[in-house]
Design brief:
Helix content: 40-55%
Domain DUF7884: 25-97
Organism: Jeongeupia naejangsanensis
Strand order of the largest sheet: 7-6-5-8-9-11-10
Distance between the termini: 56 Å
Structural class: alpha/beta
Number of helices: 15
Pfam families: CMAS, DUF7884
CATH superfamily of the largest domain: Vaccinia Virus protein VP39
CATH class of the largest domain: Alpha Beta
CATH architecture of the largest domain: 3-Layer(aba) Sandwich
Order of helices and strands: HHEEEHEHHHHEHEHEEHEHHEHHHE
Family: Belongs to the CFA/CMAS family.
Keywords: Lipid metabolism, Methyltransferase, S-adenosyl-L-methionine, Transferase
């Protein structure tokens, strides 16, 4: 446990620590100790952290998002206040003790060996919580990826439909074409492709929960003749497709496997076809994890084991090296910040029901994770891009119009 690594940190030291925090200016925080001591860092604190016992004090000796997140998840502290405000305070606490340096240090790229077994276990750990759990804070179609806010005031449900249509319009999906969706989630994109665009759509996933739910949704929609989902690894897919989409999946590929991933995509794409990769990226040009104040340590341990984020430059490089011409690059960072805000709001609104579905530890993990991701995207700690491409070569392999106007039909 982190408390063992930090060693003893008594009340006298905590007093000095509190003074050091105050020396940087006001912070909308109140800390209450088990013995009645009360530390206020502003006249009107919006966030209250309660330490129920002396063992919790050590987490604050050198606070990082990893140590503070661990303290909360493991039940060593209780936190009250708006979630986004809680994360703002946590960032400020960590930042005030790093001597003005923005980072505790970035983790080096792990280059983990992403075997089929490891990737399957990681996916199932994250996604196979329960469908009901996700349904309470996602939209009605359970689209677990960045929405698209054309105006900015759309509902979550409307913005997710716009995202699906934006992707399928970008790849110029036509009736009768064969679409492959790598990492299809609960099937929203392939269902949209089959029911609204008239395509033959195939989705793949490593999550058994998503697989079963997507199959049921296909049956309910009556489109089994042109829509299917497979429980398999992307490396095992065969065939040729007119259009390929990958939404929120390549974060699990691993930096060392990006070349093979894009090469596989290229091998599945027919001449004149289009591919769209929609994925999260680090803002670290050296492809580190972007471990701002220990945030990536927390995510790797509790939420997304073995996830690795490339910088946009590396994604474009590997896509190009695999023989795919990059035709269009679009940033959706602000869109994901808004999506996560709405997910966080829905999670909070349904907190009492969620707590009946998962244990307290998992409730706390997801609560702090969603709020932390909203902060990370809003503050450019991480980003997300849609990369549109085709097979590289002669002009005839690029089927898109000369203007990007086709992507935004009226």
């Amino acid at each position: 446990m982190l408390i063992d690594k930090l060693g003893q940190f008594g009340l006298d030291q905590f007093d000095r620590w509190a003074g050091q925090i105050r020396s940087y200016g006001e912070l909308p925080l109140q800390i209450r100790l088990w013995n009645g001591r009360d530390y206020r860092f502003s006249a009107s604190p919006t966030v209250t952290i309660t330490l129920p016992g002396p063992q919790a004090v050590s987490y604050f000796r050198k606070p990082s998002l990893a140590s503070l997140g661990e303290a909360y998840v493991e039940g060593q502290v209780d936190i009250d206040g708006p979630l986004l405000s809680v994360f703002e305070v946590a960032v400020a606490l960590a930042g005030r003790l790093v001597s003005g340096n923005k980072l505790w240090g970035r983790l080096a790229a792990r280059n983990a060996h992403h075997s089929r077994t490891l990737d399957s276990e990681s996916i199932q750990y994250h996604y196979d919580v329960s469908d009901e759990f996700y349904r309470l804070w996602l939209d009605e179609q359970m689209v677990y990826s960045c929405a698209y806010f054309e105006r900015g005031d759309e509902t979550l449900a409307d913005a997710q439909v716009k995202k699906l249509d934006h992707i399928l319009t970008k790849v110029m999906l036509r009736p009768g074409e064969q679409l492959l969706d790598i990492g299809c989630g609960w099937g929203a994109l392939i269902l949209r492709a089959a029911t609204q665009f008239g395509a033959h759509a195939t989705g793949i996933t490593l999550s058994e929960n998503q697989y079963e739910r997507a199959r049921q949704r296909i049956r309910d929609a009556g489109v089994q003749d042109r829509c299917k989902v497979l429980l398999c690894d992307y490396r095992d897919v065969t065939g040729t497709y007119d259009k390929i989409t990958s939404v929120g999946m390549f974060e699990h590929v691993g930096l060392a496997n990006l070349a093979g991933y894009f090469a596989k995509v290229n091998s599945l794409l027919r001449d004149g076809g289009l591919v769209l990769n929609h994925g999260i990226t680090t803002t670290d040009v050296n492809n580190g994890s972007g471990a701002y104040f220990g945030g990536s340590d927390f995510i790797d341990r509790y939420v997304f084991p073995n996830g690795e984020l490339p910088h946009l430059a590396l994604a474009v490089k590997e896509m190009s090296a695999a023989g795919l011409e990059v035709l269009d690059v679009e940033s959706l960072r602000r869109h994901y910040a808004r999506t996560l805000e709405l997910w966080t709001d829905r999670f909070e609104a349904n907190g009492s029901r969620i707590r009946t579905m998962v244990d307290d530890k998992h409730y706390r993990i997801w609560r702090v994770y969603l709020a932390g991701c909203a902060w990370a995207f809003a503050n450019d700690w991480v980003s997300i891009y849609q990369l549109l491409g085709c097979r590289a070569g002669t002009a005839g392999l690029n089927p898109t119009p000369m203007s990007r106007g086709y992507m935004y039909p009226k």
